[in-house]
Amino acid sequence: MNKTKAIELLTDIISCSDRENKLQGKEFYKSALKILQDERSSENELKTLYRRFCGYFAHGDFTNVEYAKINLLINYLES
Protein backbone atom coordinates (compact mmCIF):
# COMPACT_ATOMS: atom_id res chain seq x y z
CA MET A 1 0.00 0.00 0.00
CA ASN A 2 1.22 3.51 -0.70
CA LYS A 3 0.47 6.81 1.00
CA THR A 4 -2.26 7.75 -1.48
CA LYS A 5 -4.07 4.46 -0.87
CA ALA A 6 -3.72 4.91 2.91
CA ILE A 7 -5.28 8.38 2.65
CA GLU A 8 -8.14 6.97 0.55
CA LEU A 9 -8.69 4.18 3.07
CA LEU A 10 -8.77 6.60 5.99
CA THR A 11 -11.12 8.92 4.11
CA ASP A 12 -13.41 5.95 3.52
CA ILE A 13 -13.36 5.06 7.23
CA ILE A 14 -14.31 8.64 8.08
CA SER A 15 -17.15 8.59 5.54
CA CYS A 16 -18.47 5.31 6.94
CA SER A 17 -18.34 6.73 10.46
CA ASP A 18 -20.30 9.76 9.29
CA ARG A 19 -22.92 7.62 7.52
CA GLU A 20 -23.33 5.36 10.52
CA ASN A 21 -23.30 8.34 12.89
CA LYS A 22 -20.46 6.80 14.92
CA LEU A 23 -18.56 9.08 17.24
CA GLN A 24 -15.88 6.57 18.22
CA GLY A 25 -12.62 7.47 16.57
CA LYS A 26 -14.00 10.25 14.40
CA GLU A 27 -11.67 12.97 15.68
CA PHE A 28 -8.75 10.54 15.82
CA TYR A 29 -9.31 9.56 12.19
CA LYS A 30 -9.48 13.20 11.13
CA SER A 31 -6.24 14.08 12.92
CA ALA A 32 -4.56 11.00 11.41
CA LEU A 33 -5.73 12.08 7.97
CA LYS A 34 -4.15 15.52 8.43
CA ILE A 35 -0.84 13.90 9.35
CA LEU A 36 -0.91 11.59 6.33
CA GLN A 37 -1.86 14.41 3.97
CA ASP A 38 0.88 16.72 5.23
CA GLU A 39 3.94 16.30 3.02
CA ARG A 40 6.07 17.68 5.86
CA SER A 41 5.11 14.91 8.30
CA SER A 42 8.29 13.51 9.77
CA GLU A 43 9.20 9.88 10.16
CA ASN A 44 8.80 10.34 13.92
CA GLU A 45 5.23 11.66 13.48
CA LEU A 46 4.36 8.63 11.37
CA LYS A 47 5.83 6.28 13.99
CA THR A 48 3.80 8.04 16.67
CA LEU A 49 0.69 7.71 14.51
CA TYR A 50 1.43 3.99 14.15
CA ARG A 51 1.62 3.60 17.94
CA ARG A 52 -1.61 5.57 18.39
CA PHE A 53 -3.41 3.35 15.87
CA CYS A 54 -2.12 0.23 17.64
CA GLY A 55 -3.44 1.50 20.98
CA TYR A 56 -6.75 2.49 19.45
CA PHE A 57 -6.97 -0.87 17.70
CA ALA A 58 -6.45 -2.70 20.99
CA HIS A 59 -9.21 -0.88 22.85
CA GLY A 60 -11.81 0.09 20.24
CA ASP A 61 -15.03 -1.53 19.14
CA PHE A 62 -15.15 -2.00 15.37
CA THR A 63 -17.25 -3.50 12.62
CA ASN A 64 -15.52 -6.23 10.61
CA VAL A 65 -15.00 -3.84 7.69
CA GLU A 66 -13.59 -1.08 9.89
CA TYR A 67 -11.34 -3.62 11.63
CA ALA A 68 -9.91 -4.79 8.31
CA LYS A 69 -9.30 -1.24 7.08
CA ILE A 70 -7.60 -0.14 10.29
CA ASN A 71 -5.44 -3.26 10.15
CA LEU A 72 -4.35 -2.29 6.62
CA LEU A 73 -3.49 1.22 7.83
CA ILE A 74 -1.44 -0.17 10.70
CA ASN A 75 0.46 -2.43 8.30
CA TYR A 76 1.16 0.55 6.04
CA LEU A 77 2.39 2.71 8.94
CA GLU A 78 4.53 -0.12 10.26
CA SER A 79 6.53 -0.37 7.03
TrEMBL record:
Taxonomy, superkingdom: Bacteria
Name of the protein described by the UniProt record: Uncharacterized protein
